[in-house]
Amino acid sequence: MSKTLLVTGGTGGIGTAVCQNMADKGYTILSTYYPAEEEQAKEWAEKQSFDVAIYSCDVSDYESCAAMKEAIAADGHNVDIIVNNAGITRDGMFHKMSPEKWKAVMATNLDSLFNVTHQFISGMIEREFGRVINIASINGQKGQAGQTNYSAAKAGAHGFSMALAQEVVRKGITVNTVSPGYIGTEMVMAIREDIRDMIIDQIPMKRLGQPEEIASLVGYLASDEAAFITGANFAANGGQHMH
Ligand code: CAA
Question: Which of 18, 31, 42, 117 has the fewest beta carbons closer than 10 A?
């Protein structure tokens, strides 16, 4: 039986590429979408060349994640692989950052790892197989002016990966972080053009990454071949940050 992949925010740039990569490899694909975006999510699912089941879920809300898990179970799925991909930016210089911007980013980008992963980890332990792949960011590794909230949440994501990796290391479950650099998605295209051009100029490869270049790494980490890799943080950033 094929393994089942759950991607949070699968409708976004990196999420869609992950769904496509894994569908091509024969996985059963499930994606969450933000409840207010049901129509767009349905349109997205219809447009794809692969089958994808979509589930309403606000990843920042534990009860919403619990309801999503129930809906997935009711459809007869066990989740073998989670890609915690849903994320937002609310950029602003720290002295001007509102508590709302801080909280929204922490809830969606960091609390979500607890809210979503907690629903499925017991099933993975029982079945003695699991992959948890957390999509973080170069900015969790190097920090970024204008992103104290996002950088803190994304650095926290890897702390989560390392701690959970240790807890489940003998259960056939690996937990890893992928830290993309600036990828050509809506999130990056929303940066003011002159600032974005400046950023691209700081990337040694002088270009944005492509969502597929992140998806192939995720696909590898989900595979049986990657069984010995856990608690690791993989950078894919065109040489913008090396450590
Ligand atoms: N380092 C140091 N100082 C900086 C700076 C930097 N990188 N960037 C800006 N500043 C300074 C400016 O020079 C300016 O100083 P003065 O007031 O003395 O002139 C001050 O900070 C304010 O800068 P802005 O004029 O840009 O302020 P703003 O309020 O108009 O905009 C901002 C703030 C929205 C954060 C804007 O700077 C911005 O968009 N920056 C880019 C942030 C970024 O990289 N976001 C990534 C989003 S994509 C993503 O997150 C995906 C991923 O994982 C990579």
Answer: 42
